[in-house]
Structure formats: structure tokens, C-alpha cells
Specification:
With 76 residues, this protein is mainly α. It has three helices and no strands. Helix 1 runs antiparallel to helix 2. The longest helix has 19 residues.
Length: 76
Amino acid sequence: MTLTRLNLQLEKKLSVGGVDDSNGIVGGLAGEMVALLEKFTGIDPACIDSFEPLCGKQYCFGWEDSLVRLYDERDL
């Protein structure tokens, strides 16, 4: 899912210093995208599969935690 990839790209830019988030706007955006992704899973549970690249990795801001939990708890 494109929003998952966008969050991964934002994470990369934030951790290497390519994006200034001193005002918290980018982090807030990441949180809003996660909330949107969680809502999408209620509409189309198949989108949970797009969270697989997040599994087994730890990111700086922890935005991925709820998405990984959804992936781990999905019905197979």
C-alpha cells in the first residue's frame, strides 16, 4: 500500500536528517496515515498484507507498532 511506503520514506528522511520535524508536523502526518491505514483494514482486510515489510524491524518513531500488530493478528 502506498501509504505504508510513504511512511517508510518519511522515517528514512527523518532519521538521516533530510526532513526537519522540529514542529512535529511530519510526525503528526505519519500518525494520521497510520490511523487511516487502520481504518482501511476494516474496509478491506487484504490491505493488512502490505504491512509485512514493517515486521521484524524497529523504526525510530514507533509508528509501525499498531500495523505490525494487525499483521501478526490477521486471520490467515
